[in-house]
Amino acid sequence: MSVADLPMPPARAARATGASGLGDGLAVAVTILLLAAFAALVQGPGRLADDGLYRLLVALLDGHATGLGMGGALGGGVPNSFGYGELANWLPDAVLADPGRLITTMNRVGLVSAVWALGALAAALSLAYGSRVAAVATALFGLSPVWLDLAPTAHPVLPALAAFFTGAALLFADGRGWRRPALWSLATLLLFAALTLRA
């Protein structure tokens, strides 16, 4: 038996159809839009919403100035987000040399990641448990105090969760023949990336 022969989750049979499926999709869309609007309002121009992120900001600025990247003296203070820092070092020099532009970029990445994570979570849950469960769970998660507090912060856990939930969605995706091992391989890479971005 090969990986391609393994059965898909039986929960997919419970997926809602017709008007209820459309309504569930609209509920997810409204949740994502509300979160995006809230996060955009909370994020202040030229500042980070979480004080702890300034340590990462200083490490990135110092790493660019010294040419050592996250391997510099200040980069060792953020070992749990080494993947995020290494990825950020690929930004253009004009961004890495300007604290204001770097803060704006980090905030935008955080906002996009927060929205992406919710969409990927909804997709994964819809594939596994149906659209009704996905709509309710995404609303509870996306509008929870913890997520509302985290979403505007540009925290490295946001792109990590976006990659994680996308990988989960790919694991549940309906693939036949060669597509299933391909989807699972891509999912594995995304899950690895998630743990690298924020270990």
Write a concise synopsis of the structure shown.
This protein is an all-alpha fold and 199 residues long. Helices cover 67% and strands 0% of the residues. The chain is built from 9 helices and no strands.
Could you walk me through the main structural features you see in this protein, from its secondary elements to its overall organization?
With 199 residues, the chain is mainly alpha-helical. 67% of the residues lie in helices and 0% in strands. It has helices at residues 18-42, 53-66, 82-88, 93-96, 99-129, 131-142, 145-150, 157-172, 179-197. The radius of gyration is 19 Å and the shape is flat. The model is unreliable at 10-19 (pLDDT under 50).
| Beta-strand content estimate | under 5%
Largest sheet: none
DSSP strand tally:
0
Dominant shape: flat
Secondary-structure content class: mainly alpha
Roughly how many Å apart are the termini? 34 Å
Mean model confidence by pLDDT: 80
Name the helicity range: 55-70%
The oligomeric state is: single chain
Number of helices: 9
Residue runs with pLDDT of under 50 for 5 or more positions:
10-19
SSE string, helices as H and strands as E? HHHHHHHHH
